[in-house]
Amino acid sequence: MSMTQKDRNITLVGMPSSGKSTVGVLLAKRLGFDFVDVDIVIQTEEKRLLKEIIAQEGLNGFMAVENRINASLDVNHSVIAPGGSVIYGKEAMEHLKEISTIVYLKISYKETERRLGNLVDRGVVLKDGMTLFDLYQERVPYYEKYADITVDEEGLTVGETVDYLRGIMEERNRVG
Questions:
Q1: Where are the chain's structural domains?
Q2: Which pLDDT belongs to residue 4?
Q3: For residue 54, what are the contacts with CB-CB under 8 A and spacing of at least 6?
Q4: Residue 132: exposed, middle, or buried by beta-carbon count in 10 A (0-12, 13-18, 19+)?
Q5: CA dist., res. 155 & res. 165, Å (int)
Q6: Degrees to nearest 5, angle at CA 14 with 24 and 123
Q7: For residue 3, what pLDDT is reported?
Q8: Of 63, 110, 165, 172, which is the most exposed, with the fewest CB atoms less than 10 Å away?
Q9: What is the rounded distance in angstroms from the CA atom of residue 101 to the CA atom of residue 170?
């Protein structure tokens, strides 16, 4: 697959609260791309809220749905913002890696904790007995493994993150 084809989409991965939706919407506007919030795609395709899927099918059942939908995304010139647990879905990540540049929006654990506040209000679901720190420790290696580009957001504003990514993508498209 040529660099240009892969650069037609950008997938943002990272912890809940890392800015996938916020950065994603602004980046899409700057690049003239569509913005795809995969949580909304899941709700539309499943005709139920994420919390209803989790309540009815459990966390593993939800992750199977999430994997299936992410693995079948067919978009072009889009910034894709999947849920933070997408990285557990092998088929989803292989597909997203094939159709897009994967960008890991990296934030520290301390910043994750600060931004999330009340986990329940933010819709973050933890496995029984798991803490936010456990979740952070578990997911970071996956984000790092799949990332084509890592943006350490420490000290950056949303606008600076967007400008940085826009510059990288425009440069890749000139070179590709």
A1: 3-151
A2: 47
A3: 61, 62, 125
A4: middle
A5: 15
A6: 90
A7: 42
A8: 110
A9: 12
Quick one: which of 15, 44, 2, 35 has its CA closest to 133? 15
Q: Which amino acid is at 48?
A: R
E-only strand ranges, 16-133: 34-37, 78-81, 101-106
> Quick one: 3-151 is in which CATH superfamily?
P-loop containing nucleotide triphosphate hydrolases (3.40.50.300)
Sign of CA dihedral 134, 115, 14, 160: negative
Note the pLDDT of residue 8.
Answer: 84
Residue 176, token pair as written in the block: 């590709």
What CA–CA distance (Å, rounded) separates 170 from 165?
Answer: 8
pLDDT given for residue 1 in this prediction: 40
Which residues make beta-bridge pairs with 81? 37
- The residue type at 80: I
Amino acid at 33: F
Q: Which residue type sits at 168? A: I
Pull the structure tokens for residue 66.
């999430």
pLDDT the model gives residue 130 = 86
Q: For 52, what's the count of Cα atoms within 13 Å in the CB-facing half-sphere?
A: 7
Mean pLDDT by 10 residues, the chain (176 residues): 62 94 96 96 96 92 96 96 93 96 96 78 73 92 96 94 92 70
Q: What is the pTM of this model?
A: 0.91
